[in-house]
Structures are given as C-alpha cells and as structure tokens.
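Protocol step 4 of 5: obtain the predicted structure for the target chain.
Materials: sequence only (see below). No template structures provided, no constraints applied. The aim of this step is simply to have a reference model before the mutagenesis design in step 5. Sequence pasted as it appears in the construct record:
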Amino acid sequence: MAKISKKRKVANAKVDSEALYALKDAMALIKEVNTTKFDASIDVHVRLGVDPRKADQAIRGTVTLPNGTGKTKRVLVFCTPDKEQEAKDAGADFVGMDELITKIQGGWLDFDVCVAMPQVMAKVGRVARVLGPRGLMPNPKTGTVTMNISQAVSEVKGGKIAFRVDKYGIIHSSIGRVSFDAEKLTENANELLSTLVKMKPSTAKGIYMKSVTVASTMSPGVKVDPKSIR
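Step 4 output (structure tokens):
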C-alpha cells in the first residue's frame, strides 16, 4: 500500500466520509483540504440513475460555466479555406483540414476541443477512431458541428464545457480550480448540476441523482447533498 502523507492524513480527518454536505459547504471544504502546491482542477462526479445503453438515457450535452473553467481551452477547427480567417479571429488555436488530419493520424493531439463545419465531417471521419474515444469528436449535440464557427469557438473559450455519461452512469466534469473562491465554484457546480436535473429522461426509474461528489486533483472526495442544488 502507498504511504499516506501527513498532509493527506490531516485532509482526510477533516472530511466526514459519511456526511452529505450542502453544495457551498462542500466547495469551501474542498479548498481547505486540497494538498497540492499547484492550482489543481476541481471536479464533480455525478452518479445518475440511468441506463446509458438506452439511447434516450445516454445523457450528453453542454453547459456554460458562469465563471469559466480557469483553463484556456485549445481549440482546433476543421473548416473550408473561406472560414479559416473567421475561426482565427474568434481565437481558434489550430485551423485547417487535410494537414491537421495527417498530423492527428501521426499521433498529434495537442488540443482540447474540436469544432467542424458540417460539410467537412466526412473527411473528419477518417480520424474518428482517434478522436472518439478521447471525447474529441465534433458532434452537433454539443454544438461543435456548426456553420457558425466563430460563435462555437467563442463559447468554448468563454467557459462552455461538454459532458457525457460514461458506461457506468457517471458524469465527470471539471468546474474550476482551487484558486477560485468557494462562491464561484458553487455557482459553476450549480450550473452543471441544475442542467443535469433538467435533462432527466422521462424513462429513468427510481432515484435520478444517486450521488454527487467533489474532489480536487489530490484531495479526499466530499459528498454533496443533492437537495442543496438550486
């Protein structure tokens, strides 16, 4: 077994593993028990009462966090030459078509989000096997397959994030950094969680939001009371 550091032991002692904390209290606590020296990501893990194998329960979508993520996303745009300048003006980091596909086929993946025009998706399909498993494949449901390239890029740069339920019925999403104050973290988390509540499928049976846990990169998890979500 790996040895637990003194800092982690102190952090663990501050968190009641059986308690359900109000969302705002959980965010304040997660800042207090963070043991990293760097500006760690704070993530929310939501276990939903859905069956992801059923198409209508495979929850996925986007949400714009009111206070951003604290990380500047690197955006790649697949587009025709006439749209390249529009993409660059909106803040895209990489713009083009065939040369980008060749780089990706060669193992290059130095970006966080892909945006594409509908008419180039057939070409983008050549790297679907690479992008898909990493959650990078452009998709109309997340607003990343669109003719309005500049809007899509601006939204991603401004704090828009995509989420999708995994095969275990869990959604994992970063909602900020340790350097954010507790109120901003609470606002971001609430935006994500309230969006998920609104997306409850009519066919989902039993408890929908089974558990909500927040944790920083190297902190103990703090359980959130779903009733504290506005």
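Step 4 remarks: The chain has eight helices and nine strands. The radius of gyration is 19 Å.
Proceed to step 5.
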